[in-house]
Amino acid sequence: MNGKSNLQQRLAVLLREAERAHGDYEKSLGHRDDDWPDWYAAYVAERLSNDVR
Question: Other CB atoms closer than 10 Å to residue 14's CB: what's the count?
Fold first, then answer.
């Protein structure tokens, strides 16, 4: 487990997924998304909420 908790591992996976998905989102926008922190937060929160269902 490389000394990382399950939560840390899950967050790392979700952040990598968010990076890829956000890149696609920015391409569709045609410009840089200055509100990327809110976008990432919503993406990660949605997926974490699915984990507990």
Answer: 18
